[in-house]
């Protein structure tokens, strides 16, 4: 099959893609408990993958697990979109003010 051929010829890329797609399931968990179990399992599996860029992501996810799990503790109601929008407005204002003298 085509998938078997892809795995044989480009296994690191395909494995990386599959790990990335699997991580997307993290956001579908209903509780912080199950999300934490999933994250631990995914990080362990990814570190065993021997794909260095993916191992780096797994280590970073493990180091920042409390931040990732905060999304579940907030019951998926809060987004950082408002803060990010405000930060963009501040950057834009600063950029426009370059060269302005009073």
Automatic annotation (TrEMBL):
Q: Which domain of life is it from?
A: Bacteria
What is the recorded name of this protein? Answer: Transposase
InterPro entries listed in its UniProt record: Transpos_ISL3, Transposase_DDE
Q: Which residues form the Transposase IS204/IS1001/IS1096/IS1165 DDE domain?
A: 2-102
